[in-house]
Amino acid sequence: MRILITNDDGINAPGLAVLKEIATEIAGDAGEVWTVAPAFEQSGVGHTISYSSPFMVSELGARTFAAEGSPADCVLAAIHDVMSDHPPDLVLSGVNRGNNSAENVLYSGTIGAAMEAALQDLPAIAMSQYLGPENWNAPDMFEAARVHGADVVRRLLERVQGADHPYRLFYNVNFPPVPAAAVAGITAAPQGKRPATGFSVEPQLSPAGRRFLWIKGGDQRRATAKGSDADVNLKGFISVTPMRADLTAHDDLDKLADLLS
């Protein structure tokens, strides 16, 4: 199996090294792990692509490339250039430093890379490590992902092989903010929404007196609806959420049709 790994935290991020360990275990002795990751941090860029400007891809070592673009750019570069002679069998994105549960999904470059892989008709899994008091200052904040990641991927491999919809499924996996031994299990969960939580801005004056705005995140400890991703994560479970790039509100189509008729 040929596996492509990427992320949004950048080529030197410790979570990418964890993902390479996971991918190497899955690929096996006869497989290959290729890395095409952003040359610098691309957190929060979502599914951005560099449509209006070119970007450079540099070879850093064997099967290791840095792209001066977004995570989705990295997937495109890998499929159509770096690995064009033999595209990957599986795309893994992460392991993100911080959760991509609930509303974070909409901003995440980690998710954006997996989404682009699915749009290119490739099986894809995004993985993120929730952070909290129990693992923030731990010797290995990625321990839950490191220990349980390969097992999660193996469980999903049968599901990610088939495409039964115009928009192919991809999977969003979030590891809970606890040590590996404290992980309570793995469960399927829908995307949630943290109440009264979202991004905002905070103004700040520079030493030169110029006014800048910092993007400010919300409280990541707020639980979402019972059984949804952030809720189960905060209860110690690994969440797996099936996703598609189809943004249609299917539950509203019939009502809208009636109104328009």
UniProtKB/TrEMBL annotation:
Residues reported to bind a divalent metal cation: 8-9, 43, 96
Record InterPro entries: SurE, SurE-like_Pase/nucleotidase, SurE-like_sf
EC number: 3.1.3.5
Cofactor(s) named in the record: a divalent metal cation
Cofactor note: Binds 1 divalent metal cation per subunit.
Subcellular location: Cytoplasm
GO cellular component, one term: cytoplasm
Gene Ontology terms, MF aspect: 3'-nucleotidase activity; 5'-nucleotidase activity; exopolyphosphatase activity; metal ion binding; nucleotide binding
Chemical reaction(s) catalysed: a ribonucleoside 5'-phosphate + H2O = a ribonucleoside + phosphate
Any Pfam family matching the protein: SurE
Every Survival protein SurE-like phosphatase/nucleotidase domain range: 3-194
Keywords, sorted A to Z: Cytoplasm, Hydrolase, Metal-binding, Nucleotide-binding
Gene3D superfamilies per record: Survival protein SurE-like phosphatase/nucleotidase
SUPFAM superfamilies xref list: SurE-like (SSF64167)
Keyword Hydrolase in annotation: yes
Group of enzyme by EC: hydrolase
First-listed, main subcellular location of the protein, grouped into a coarse class: cytoplasm
Claim: RNA-binding is one of the keywords in the record: no
Family, similarity comment: Belongs to the SurE nucleotidase family.
Function in brief: Nucleotidase that shows phosphatase activity on nucleoside 5'-monophosphates.
Protein known as: 5'-nucleotidase SurE
Species of provenance: Roseivivax lentus
Name of the coding gene: surE
